[in-house]
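Working notes for the structural subgroup meeting. M.R. asked for a predicted model of this chain before we commit to crystallization trials. I am recording the input and output together here so anyone reviewing the notebook later can reproduce the run.

Input as submitted:
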Amino acid sequence: NEKCINLPDALIPDNFRNHGNFIVSLGNLIKWLAGQAETSGVDIYAGFSATEILYDQDTNIIGVVTGDMGRHRDGSKKEGFQSGIEILAKYTIFAEGARGSLAKELIKKFHLDTGKAPQSFSIGIKELWEVPSDQSHPGLVIHTTGWPLDKESFGGGFLYHLNDNKIALGLVVGLDYSNPWLSPFQEMQRLKTHPSIRKYIDRGKRIGYGARAINNGGIASMPDPCLPGGLLIGCNAGTLNAS
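Returned structure, recorded in token form:
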């Protein structure tokens, strides 16, 4: 566990070659895109999730209903309760991410996964660190495979050096692991103890963290994305290239 091996460039798959690429924050990119969209006249309802799909008499999708605001845990209404609103559209695009609740309804209702392989998933755990300037190397990208995972488990780690002395560090673990004692969270903690990782963060401070589900199935598991009056995109449609 004290060792790591750098693969020769000739053995690195094309999708892991990052020379000349840019490291960007997806969150910041989305904020910028939102500003561009609003400038073009697009209405964005941040903080409102869709909870119901609207259909016409011919089962064509005509929009969605947002969730109610201001309910107690038992479902009763609080003071200031606001019911969800109907948002109608000629075409509704669903982009909920992996295993979206509305997408599951649509896939089942329209049999979009007929003849497809079952979808599989991973969990991605990520932390954002702030480190001293001498530990920061903007543009440096490290991908890992193997330890701390065992030979029967799928996954790997990543470390991206960002601007402003920030480092994004994470681990992806396939959720089809067979070891009942394996904890993706604990494996993430072990990853940080490896000398090749620890040397970049041992004097730093963790300032953010999160986790999300990731599609693994690839093209064989992609449901038909086209619907009467709608479309599945992104992880809703399983388009993520897990490699």
